[in-house]
Sequence to fold (205 residues):
Amino acid sequence: MSRVLSLILVLIVAGAAGLFYAAPIISFYDVRSSCESQDIDALAKLIDFNTVRVSLKAQLDAGDKGLSAPAPSALNDPVGATGNAFKSVADSVGNLFNDLTNPNPKAPPKPVIDVNTYLTPKAILGLTYGVAKDANRFEPTRYDGKPPSPKTAFFSLERARLTVTDETHGTTTFTFERHGLTHWQLVHIGLPTAESEAMKDAPAG
Fold:
């Protein structure tokens, strides 16, 4: 009898561990399903729209070059901050001199991107399909083929990253944070950049 109870206990623990590991993937499909059904209330529970909005805006503004690390802090790194300030002044003077000596027609102003167009159910669905920066123009009825399945790129007790890869657009990364035992919330969507795809495809070593 004790052997049977031990076996049952092992199965329960294994099942709980499997459910815990699978929970972010379940949340991903829940996001996709809620987008398809236009369930705004469900999406509000599944997605931290404030943090996702901020991160998407920063990436869209940065373009294909991607984001850079923050500038050195004068409090934590006075030498680095001073060097960064001198570099900024030198770059400004260099650009001014270059404009004076090599006048060129000014580039057209960069179009303003409304990040909210990427946070509609249809656009979020497009992001889960891997269409990346084309998500604000995504039309589910025109999508051919089976939607790509997410793959686990990282998993810890508090955070999980899932990736979706599209042959045309590259790899989009979805970061989930745990809120409760099995509830995971989407807190970041990482858009593919030319640099990240080049690093991924580069040979090791």
Q: What stands out?
A: The mean pLDDT is 79.
